[in-house]
Amino acid sequence: MSVLIKGGTVVNAELSLRADVICDGGLITAVGADLDAPSDATVIDAGGQYVMPGGIDPHTHMQLPFMGTVASEDFETGTTAGLAGGTTMIIDFVIPGPQQNIMEAYKQWREWAEKSVSDYSFHVAITWWDDSVHDDMGTLVRDHGVNSFKHFMAYKGAIMADDEILVNSFARSLELGAIPTVHAENGELVFRLQKELFEKGITGPEGHPLSRPPECEGEAANRAIRIAEVLKVPLYVVHNSCRQSLEAITRARNEGQRVFGEVLAGHLLIDDSIYRHKDFEVAAAHVMSPPFRSSEHQDALWKGLQSGNLQTTATDHCCFCADQKAAGKDDFRLIPNGTGGVENRMEVLWHHGVSTGKLTMNEFVKVTSTNAAQIFNVYPRKGSIAVGADADIVVWDPQATKTISTKTDHQNVDYNIFEGMEVTGCPSYTISQGKVVYADGELNVERGAGRYVDRPPFAPFYDALKKQAQLAEPVAVKR
Ligand code: URQ
Ligand code: ZN
Ligand code: ZN
Fold first, then answer.
1. What pLDDT, in 10s, does the model give residues 385-422?
2. How far apart are CA 354 and CA 395, in angstroms?
3. Is there an atom of ligand 1 within 6 Å of 337 CB?
4. Apex CA 314: angle with CA 311 and CA 316, to 5°?
5. Ligand 2 center–CA 151 separation, angstroms
6. How far apart are CA 12 and CA 32, in angstroms?
7. What is the CATH number of domain 53-383+453-459?
């Protein structure tokens, strides 16, 4: 079965052009003017609409076991919601417990993800260190298509990576041609501030942002960046929420260091006043880390996207329902951290980014799809409307309007952090692997149709980098 997308404007990261698109056998087979429909083609009239690469969300946590519970969104429902919002690929996380065998954790997550309805891949978190972790990282890169390793600098007593783990794992990543990524908050500082606040009697969700000030994030971001600088390894900083971490990234990039930054749709649009909401349920529904910040930080983050100092957008989709969040009713430290958004990322970015003139359509494609594909080495298979690329496409109706609500979304969680937001510009069709899986509000997905996407190491790039590192080797002074 083929698909002809007729009459639209193709928008790629580098170019927009009026062109038809033909998909066949899961791939894009033709892009050009006035294409004839293959005999078996489903024809989509894309007149007045934009034909863009399907979104890639590089940061989700479907059915994550965390803080004594399990995220309510699983790989089937979460990838379904993503397709309804134009996202055709997610990069999720394998997060081994401390001392848990890395390969065992990887196999567990691969099993969980088999029910996905769209394509997926995994960053693997390094939460402890010994020679077996060193070796397993090599196995994952060589045999399992993993080219990114995550490090949580927060969550003391659980999955927090100390400097010894960061240094060992960053160095190993360089050897393997993989990129280290970090959740940058100083976990020791957060732990102390949480304790001090709680002992002062601040037990509600308002304590959450107070215990994780932006300075804790700025310190950790800078520390990770400096470690990467000394070890000469690139670095990807996830969910930057504040001016301080953005400043650390901007300084490094201005010095020519290869550092990439991600920002969540939530951190661009939601401020920290929500944590002082009179209803515990509403405030707790927004507890995620780093926390939503004041509008000063949102302005800085938008400028980070516009300047190119932040390259990707994500959601950190990690859902917990009210009954799960209630675990922290009397102690904000026990509220499971996480919020949703995988279905709304692209439409809220279009409405608040493109329609306001902050981002061009091409920049929108860059930050919702192409940059993530390039950074995590699946471009141009993903992140491009081009012959030979996977037929993962979103047809975007710039005139369509919508009021976002948990009552009408497809996410398996009882709260939507964008509840009530009115947006103009939404997907009219989503095509995944060349099949129309979403059309004008109707989903047509298949459990298990999603594929694990191998992400090869950055060998050529790293080879050059390693040569540079050797050149810089100190030479023993002959006496
Ligand atoms: O820290 C993360 O990215 C995971 C555990 C999701 N939760 C969150 O609050 N961001
Ligand atoms: Zn995180
Ligand atoms: Zn996360």
1. 999 999 999 999 999 999 999 999 999 999 999 999 99
2. 16
3. yes
4. 140
5. 9
6. 14
7. 3.20.20.140
